[in-house]
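Entry for the shared binder. Reason: the reviewer on the internal report wants the predicted structure included alongside the sequence.
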Amino acid sequence: LTAMGEPSMDPTIAPDSTAQQDSLFSMMDVFLISLITGLFTYWFFFRKKKEEVPDLPKMQSVAAPVRDSSFIEKMKKTGRNIVVFYGSQTGTAEEFANRLSKDAHRYGLRGMAADPEEYDLSDLSRLSEIDKSLAVFCMATYGEGDPTDNAQDFYDWLQEADADLSGLRFAVFGLGNKTYEHFNAMGKYVDKRLEELGAQRIFELGLGDDDGNLEEDFITWREQFWPAVCEHFGVEATGEESSIRQYELVVHTDVNMNKVYTGEMGRLKSYENQKPPFDAKNPFLAQVTENRKLNEGGERHLMHLELDISNSKIRYESGDHVAVYPANDSSLVNQIGEILGTDLDTVMSLNNLDEESNKKHPFPCPTSYRTALTYYLDITNPPRTNVLYELAQYATDAGEQERLRKMASSAAEGKALYLSWVVEARRNILAILQDMPSLRPPIDHLCELLPRLQARYYSIASSSKVHPNSIHICAVTVEYETKTGRLNKGVATNWLKSKVPDQNGSSSLVPMYVRKSQFRLPFKPSTPVIMIGPGTGIAPFIGFIQERAWLKQQGKEVGETVLYYGCRHEREDYLYREELARFQKEGVLTQLNVAFSRDQAEKVYVQHLLKKNKENVWKLIDEGMAHIYVCGDARNMARDVQNTFYEIVSEFGSMSQPQAVDYVKKLMTKGRYSLDVWS
């Protein structure tokens, strides 16, 4: 051992140690080679994965345009030659578009209704590739001359487009309301702009007025529109209007109830598993934390509600609108079920017979008849004439069938009967079924025909600066007796009235989302504001005043804040009396002018108080560059207030009436005269 441990040239030892070294190196080599090979292999496969990852999105992006953004290709594929685009906020324009597209088959043509939001409208220039092609536009005007949400992109494209539409044939029907300043602005703009881009108008612009009889306006236009189409294309009607089902019924006897819709607007189970962002197709379920009666007397019920939006990531500004999805009264739903002898808890689907249609169902399916009639369908408004026409076939009494067909006809006598018996008598579908004992349609066809129940919009009565986690609503319940002696109730307001704050139940939940508005406080807090809002028109101004108070607390210079408010009786329906008195005491509300219309022999309204203070009003407008805001009834109040401003401007601005009108219109253009009105 000693010899081995020392440096020695003993030959018997040397070969042994060399062999051991050779063996050791070969093992080391194998180990190193294995290690290097292993590392290289691992790196190679790891690197392969790293390289392949970017390829996956590429594959997806190739497949992404599965959504058919070309309506031309879709029309060619399905043999359509008429496309009816709709700009719809409440569903009426969409309904009219569906009726027109359905009409086309009577003339040997094939139509399709289309949402402009789902397609690339620059393809309009290619429509001439299709024989006997025509584009029809049913365009509603929203708010103060604005396009509807789904037509905003189309409107933007029209403004910027320099396309050559010389091969396009078109017609436009506008849906508006004459009580609004910009009556049918969207319909008029689309009609004018398409012609400017070279398109050929084959029938005159139709202007429907919802303040009058929109249904009659549409029927009158439609009955002249189709003969013009026939003349242009050299075609003839192939027969009488016939009832063609758009959807087929499928009853589910053995279904997983987790796959059944229970009132959701979009994604199944979205009310159980809430995910932002929240919008029309994905509303947020807000808890009602306060619901108090505002008025001290009188027959009406005016209420203040507070919706909790904590953890929703919903943001709003003073002046925005909150949309709520109401539910129909269960007693009305039950009566429809009883009168039609239907088990309302039957689970079913209505599937579109046109497999190429983007709209697979008229409402979320599968669902029960009870859910459809409660959450998805409008059962309280008088049905339109097309519904009566389709239902007529089910009336076993010849007189009732003839009456229904007459009301659905374009004859003057039929129109007059529809106006008096349905519209003016405010007969809803239940009332019609009750008053026509032989009319017992299949409930699935009735569900197919009834329009969708729409969200209701309310001006938000709070400021997010003061109430970031809640949205306040001010509303009056609608309730009236019809000419037939029935008591009709407003769907949303009576449903909201029943929403009592509840710590753990679902009874106080309200599906809602926020719709942005142009009704905004001036950018500079020092700018004076004149607010005119009688009745529930005070709602956005409560938010405005709250915000001005908050700005003042932040040390900002806040300009004059002037309110003109009106109600019937001081002791009955003076809304937010205490809050307004407090704001005035704190110096935020610099002027509080209240008109009590029925507390004296002669009625006094907000416009009378404006006239009384006309000198001060003019000074604020002319010298203070004040912003004017009007909220409430469009039919009378907003018009009367505007006329009063014409008078004030004319008198103190030394202008003629036309000059004064022009002056006020310019204030509107500059955003210094804003309206948030309804009819």
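Summary line for the report: The longest helix spans residues 14-52.
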